[in-house]
UniProtKB/TrEMBL annotation, chain A:
<feature type="domain" description="FAD/NAD(P)-binding">
    <location>
        <begin position="261"/>
        <end position="519"/>
    </location>
</feature>
<dbReference type="InterPro" id="IPR006222">
    <property type="entry name" value="GCVT_N"/>
</dbReference>
<dbReference type="InterPro" id="IPR029043">
    <property type="entry name" value="GcvT/YgfZ_C"/>
</dbReference>
<protein>
    <submittedName>
        <fullName>Sarcosine oxidase subunit alpha family protein</fullName>
    </submittedName>
</protein>
<dbReference type="GO" id="GO:0046653">
    <property type="term" value="P:tetrahydrofolate metabolic process"/>
</dbReference>
<dbReference type="Pfam" id="PF17806">
    <property type="entry name" value="SO_alpha_A3"/>
</dbReference>
<dbReference type="Pfam" id="PF01571">
    <property type="entry name" value="GCV_T"/>
</dbReference>
<dbReference type="InterPro" id="IPR027266">
    <property type="entry name" value="TrmE/GcvT-like"/>
</dbReference>
<feature type="domain" description="SoxA A3">
    <location>
        <begin position="597"/>
        <end position="679"/>
    </location>
</feature>
UniProtKB/TrEMBL annotation, chain B:
<dbReference type="InterPro" id="IPR027266">
    <property type="entry name" value="TrmE/GcvT-like"/>
</dbReference>
<protein>
    <submittedName>
        <fullName>Sarcosine oxidase subunit gamma</fullName>
    </submittedName>
</protein>
<dbReference type="Pfam" id="PF04268">
    <property type="entry name" value="SoxG"/>
</dbReference>
<dbReference type="InterPro" id="IPR007375">
    <property type="entry name" value="SoxG"/>
</dbReference>
Length: 1078, 200
């Protein structure tokens, strides 16, 4: 959502504004003096530049002022705004891109203290492996839960069901960790090949273990790694695709808006440090994290948890800090507008309170943003790399440290970088037998020494060349990297993989930020962005924890200081410097001939598939993505995207930095439609507007028609009546006696000021300034192209005051239209326009007995035709209520429109109902109104017109002034196009069989036999009704040269019939107008 | 018939919703308080802020029309809301609209001042209580934090799917006035009561 700075109100959401096209295209001073070409140029030709473009905008939902904005059409950035009448600004200053991570000296890393990874302790002996069930070695009865440790609540046991088997877990588990604790790792079969797949990660990046939740509420395709365990959870594994629930979701979903000085995304070490730095500055801070508790990667590594806890508590206590847990920021839009979804009650299972929304969408507008989104470990494309038991190294570490779960008993580690060593050591310490660390690097450095010291064999310069095992991994083959000789085989039920780290740059990229390839890190990192955003920590590719913390704190401080706040240095944990050996950039690993090397596990895309894509000539990762579907699944390629780029780069023989990544688009993780819809469903989806008489209509059985947002009574069926019968009855009452309808929805605009008459003369095609006070005139409004835009009556209230009525659906558009001309073209006119649509309730009283009914209720009003002529209005009291009564007719009958305060409308209506009872007064709805007006040939703008119809086409040349020097649309009536003889005219149609009904939209053709297509059509039916007064069906239609065809027979294809019809005058009832005066 | 109509009390747009608003207020235990302020006098005033009429009207009303966008000025029982650089909404006690209009017209003399009675065009919802701001944040994109929208601020904006005039009331914790077009008042009430579900 763009912010557009209104020159008066300041920045507001773009949704409050209305676009008005190119600015500085003035209305020609003398349109009549222009050639057709010059006039067409004014009407139709606009610039379309790439770059800065001056446009008119109206703050439609705000102060209603029109102004000019210079918008860059390539970036959508608003470069300048200025008031209507002011000239194009002399200078424009586009926003500059700033680096994702400005380097400043305040990011110095603290040098000493604290512990790094856990110290290695004893190694367990090997156990028997593989029992063929997908469960790990050691037999089914032994738990994989560590005796102590982790952040689970061991006192709270939950029972859950997976694939029909009941298991136990704990509060604090995810479904994935609870399954692993029960020895279950296989959690899906793959979508195309049906291969068993195991839990691969410990977070949102999970490609494999995507499950169906069955109870308490069905939900498809949730990564088991993100589902918090609750009691009674029932889930099942999926073959790559879920099932939508067949029953409506009973839960509430809602959305809120939030504003802050600083939004921090991610509560890992960098995000927490940023929040700690900003927390006590007084700035409004939001810290959002997708986990139930802050800590991020520290929860998985088990480091500095005391600092996490203290900092979390401080943030919770800080007045202007809001910590959003279980909240995923999934979209980053214009002007620092970010969307997040908070999972509020999902984790409570069946115990979720009904009045609390299950999920909430946060619409956050942040002055500044710090992205501390961390990094995802990536996999490697080696042979048979998809067996259950192959797992990202850091994920295995998280299961051990965070959940107290051993993801296997006998592990091999395959890595290209340092990070997997800490995982191997933590697993070793927890009792996993880590048989070997296979490192592609020839010299893995000091981490290898630590591993060896812990009793783990390190095979440097080696790679995994294949795996075995069906339901679960049983063994891993290893050979010197790039060679097939010298192969060794290790029995293992767990293979930890680390192919390097991908900074989570999704949001940065969505923000419009650019990425660059960091060759040293071997990954794409945030580069520059034009929004007020910084990136901190491993989201920048920063591997070292001390540097991550320092970066976070500095970014948080910089952000709030830029907003004018002062902050103190936060307390950060001391972090021991860790040895660092540069990672090796590896994507594909040669292996057993014919074995698939999976790149995208969720889409079953292999290196061979990508090779087919490049073999077919595709040279861009965007194209190979579409060709192979790599990266298009539920996980959007979080673990596979960069790997796919790397593989394609290798296949093409180019550097990955040249190839780049595919585009990151919102949402970062899937968001349910229910959450996005929120409360905008059912009756709250679209507002309904009602009049002061609505309840009476409901109480009297009215059926309603939607007109714009209004609910208007359509017809009032009596016992057993269908629409046709009800409408014929209502029409007859209006023609024969008296009927009344609620006309309150008509738009009403009060036009005041000394130049009001001049203004209306410019706006309407006919003359309004000559109207006498006390009188009323019908008027037509056109666009500059001469096409009818609206019609209605104009009442002259005083010398300098008019009341304009508009069609129901067009009220806001007409007011906007008036303001646009007044504010941009004719600011010198002393006129003000104010909407008074709801200030007045309007009742149309129609029929030959209407005079008696009105007269009985308005004793002070002289109602005779001489005293109160057609198109006059009178102020009086009706039923004791102050009223403005207008003699207007939209039916051809004697009729009045009685306007009163809506506060008293019901009293008026009931008084009319009672006073009219002796005459059988009948309430009628819009359908009857339409029939009555159509019998008289009165067009409905928007039904009988479509923006291509002139007043002349409607047969209303009488309403187009020839005296006025100019009015909007006048010049267009001299254009060749508007004087063509074959323009479509509004005419009446009478089917030759008086019972045949022509559906609206029916085309008309000249001949009784349809020619071969394309069939030349003469026009179409715009309105069609059954008439009580005429005793037959009839229609209005726009027909080429229609007025010259009156009396001609045409044909209307209806179904497979050609219905003969006769063209007639549009005025089919009372053409002499004898009934108007009663 | 005329006789009974004479005595029929006027009906506000939310007269039928009063019970539901009161019930929600009670159930929330102070979290939200919702009520319709009925029949307030409302006048739309248009004049040149730099012209002679501005001062004359100010004197006649004993209140300076606010010139700063989106602010409110109180004077006696009158409140003047900035709606635009030449447009204000005067809000006063029920029943005073005619007297106010003639006072303004007299003060303006021959200056081109437009005054339009819009008392029935909108009705006013009072939204207060400790969660009032949270309640409005369900559907209002404006920053309603006291730092951004404190006492003396008003704004024309969108709440849920309808346009409103929002006024921050003067006393701290006094909440907001939400002025809404009468035809949308029922919808907005339904929307507010639904949004309040969590606070009840």
């Amino acid at each position: 959502m763009l912010l557009i700075p209104c020159p008066w109100c300041g920045p507001r959401d773009e949704a409050e504004f209305h676009y008005g096209g190119q600015a500085h295209v003035p209305y020609p001073e003398d349109p009549a003096a222009l050639t057709d070409e010059e006039w067409a140029r004014y009407l139709f030709f606009r610039a379309n530049p790439k770059g800065p473009f001056a446009e008119r905008w109206s703050h439609a939902a705000g102060c209603r002022r029109w102004f000019n904005a210079v918008r860059d059409t390539a970036t959508n950035e608003i470069l300048a705004v200025y008031k209507a009448g002011e000239s194009y600004p002399a200078t424009l200053e586009p926003r500059q891109a700033s680096p994702a991570r400005p380097a400043f000296e305040d990011e110095a890393v603290q040098p000493e203290g604290g512990s790094g990874g856990a110290a290695p302790i004893g190694v367990e002996g090997a156990e028997s492996l593989q029992d063929g069930t997908g469960r790990g070695g050691g037999g089914e009865t032994r738990t994989f839960r560590t005796p102590t440790g982790g952040r689970i609540d061991r006192d709270t046991a939950f029972t859950f069901t997976f694939d029909g088997v009941e298991y136990q877990g704990h509060r604090g588990d995810t479904l994935a960790s609870a399954l692993l604790a029960n020895g279950v790792i296989a959690a899906a079969t793959s979508i195309k090949r049906g291969r068993p797949r195991g839990i691969f990660s410990a977070g949102v990046e999970e490609p494999n273990a995507v499950v169906q939740i069955e109870a308490p509420f069905p939900e498809p395709m949730l990564p088991a790694t993100t589902v918090e365990l609750y009691d009674g959870l029932v889930a099942s594994s999926l073959p790559g695709q879920g099932r939508l629930a067949t029953e409506p979701d009973p839960a509430r979903y809602d959305a809120v808006h939030a504003h802050c000085d600083l939004l921090i995304v991610g509560a890992g070490p960098a995000g927490l440090a940023a929040a700690a730095a900003a927390a006590h500055s007084g700035a409004r801070v939001i810290l959002a994290d997708d986990q139930p508790e802050p800590g991020g990667s520290l929860l998985g590594t088990g480091e500095h948890l005391d600092w996490v806890e203290t900092t979390g508590a401080q943030l919770d206590a800080a007045a202007e800090v809001r910590v959003l847990r279980r909240t995923t920021v999934f979209g980053y839009y214009d002007d620092n507008h970010l969307l997040a979804v908070e999972r509020r009650t999902n984790h409570l299972g069946a115990g979720a309170p009904e009045n609390v929304s299950r999920e909430r969408v946060w619409r956050i507008r942040a002055r500044r943003v710090v992205l501390a989104t961390g990094a995802h470990e990536r996999s490697l494309a080696f042979a048979d790399n998809d067996r259950p038991g192959v797992m990202l190294a850091a994920a295995a570490r998280a299961y051990v440290n965070r959940h107290g779960v051993l993801p296997g008993r006998h592990a091999v580690v395959f890595t290209t970088n340092d990070s997997a060593y800490a995982a191997a050591l933590d697993l070793t310490a927890a009792g996993v037998d880590v048989t070997a660390i296979v490192d592609t690097r020839p010299e893995p450095g000091e981490w290898a020494e630590r591993a060896r010291a812990a009793g783990v064999e390190v095979l440097s310069g080696h790679a995994v060349t294949g795996t075995e095992g069906d339901a679960r991994l049983t063994s891993v083959s290893v050979a010197p990297y790039g060679e097939s000789a010298g192969q060794r085989e290790f029995a293992a039920d767990l293979l930890l993989v680390s192919g390097g780290w991908n900074p989570v740059a999704h949001l940065f990229s969505q923000a419009g930020g650019t990425l660059r390839h960091d060759d040293a890190l071997g990954s794409f990192v945030p580069d520059t962005c034009r929004q007020a955003v910084e990136v901190a920590g491993s989201a920048n590719g920063t591997p070292d924890l001390g540097a991550v913390l320092a970066q976070g704190a500095a970014a948080g401080a910089r952000a709030v200081e830029a907003e004018g706040f002062t902050c103190e240095a936060p307390r950060l944990p001391h972090v021991a410097a860790q040895p660092q050996t540069p990672p090796m950039q590896v994507f594909t690993v040669p292996g057993r001939e014919g074995a698939p090397r999976f790149v995208d596990l969720q889409r079953d895309v292999t290196v061979d598939d990508l090779a087919r894509a490049t073999g077919a000539g595709l040279r861009s990762v965007e194209h190979t993505k579409r060709y192979t579907t790599a990266g298009t699944a539920n996980d959007q390629g979080k673990t596979s995207g960069v790997l796919a780029s790397g593989v394609v780069a290798e296949l093409l023989g180019v550097d990955i930095s040249v190839l780049g990544t595919t585009t990151f688009r919102p949402p970062y993780t899937p968001v349910s439609f229910a959450a996005l819809a929120g409360r905008d469903r059912g009756a709250l989806h679209d507002p309904i507007r009602v009049t002061a008489l609505h309840e009476w209509h409901v109480g009297h059985g009215a059926l309603f028609e939607n007109v714009g947002q209004w609910k208007r009574p359509w017809y009032y069926p009596r016992d057993g009546e269908d629409m046709e019968a009800a409408v014929l009855r209502e029409c007859a009452a209006a023609r024969d006696s008296v009927a009344f309808m609620d006309a309150s929805t008509l738009g009403k605009i009060d036009v005041q000021g000394p130049d009001a008459g001049v203004f209306l003369d410019l706006l309407y095609t006919n003359m309004m300034s000559t109207l006498k006070v006390g009188m009323i005139r019908y008027g037509v409004m056109c666009r500059p192209d001469g096409m009818v835009f609206d019609d209605g009556t104009v009442i002259r209230l005083a010398e300098d005051r008019f009341l304009v009525t508009t069609t129901t659906g067009n009220a806001a558009a007409v007011l906007d239209w008036m303001e646009e001309w007044l504010q941009t073209e004719w600011p010198e006119l002393r006129v003000h326009c104010t909407s008074v649509t709801e200030q007045w309730a309007t009742v149309a009283l129609v029929g030959p007995r209407s005079r008696e009914v009105l007269g009985s209720l308005a004793p002070q009003l002289a109602v005779s035709n001489e005293d109160f002529p057609f198109m006059a209005w009178r102020g009086t009291t009706v039923a004791g209520i102050g009223a403005r009564v207008c003699r207007i007719s939209f039916s051809g009958e004697l009729a009045y429109e009685i306007n009163v305060s809506p506060w008293e409308a019901l009293a008026l209506w009931e008084a009319l109902y009672a006073a009219g009872a002796p005459y059988g007064i009948t309430p009628y709805g819009t359908e009857t109104m339409h029939v009555l007006r159509a019998e008289k040939g009165y067009p409905i703008i928007g039904q009988d017109t479509d923006g291509t119809v002139t007043p002349q086409d409607l047969g209303m040349s009488w309403a187009v002034s020839k005296k006025k020097p100019d009015f909007i649309g006048k010049r267009s009536y001299a254009r060749a196009d508007t004087v063509r003889p074959d323009r479509k005219h509004l005419v009446g149609l009478l089917p030759e069989d008086p019972g045949t009904f022509l559906p609206e939209g029916t085309h008309l053709v000249a001949d009784s036999v349809l020619p071969a297509p394309p069939v030349p059509t003469l026009g179409h039916v715009t309105s069609s009704y059954r008439s009580a007064a005429l005793g037959r069906t009839f229609a209005l239609a726009l027909i080429k040269g229609g007025r010259d065809r009156i009396g001609e027979r045409l044909y209307a294809p209806v179904g497979d019939r050609l219905v003969p019809v006769t063209v007639a005058s549009p005025v089919l009832y009372d053409p002499e107008g004898a009934r108007r005066d009663g | 018939m005329a006789d009974t109509a004479l005595t029929a009390p006027p009906r506000s747009p939310l007269s039928q919703a009063a019970g539901r608003l009161a019930a929600a207020t009670r159930a929330s235990g102070g979290a939200v308080r919702l009520a319709e302020l009925r029949f307030l006098a409302q006048l739309n005033v248009r004049l040149d802020a730099k012209g002679a009429a501005a001062d004359a009207v100010g004197l006649a009303l004993d209140l300076q029309l606010p010139l700063e966008p989106n602010t409110v000025v109180h004077g006696g029982e009158l409140t003047a809301l900035w709606l635009g650089p030449d447009e204000w909404l005067l809000v006063g006690r029920p029943g005073t609209q005619r007297e106010l209009e003639s006072r303004i017209r007299e003060a303006a003399g021959n200056e081109p001042v437009s005054v339009t009675d819009v008392s029935a065009q909108r009705t006013t919802l009072l939204v207060t209580g400790s969660r009032a701001r949270d309640l409005l944040a369900h559907g209002c994109a404006l920053d309603l934090h006291p730092r951004a929208f404190g006492a003396g601020r008003c704004a024309q904006t969108t709440l849920a799917r309808t346009q409103v005039v929002l006024v921050a009331r003067d006393e701290p914790r006094a909440g907001f006035w939400v002025l809404v077009r009468s035809s949308f008042a029922g919808y907005l009430t339904d929307w507010l009561l639904d949004a309040a579900t969590e606070y009840l």
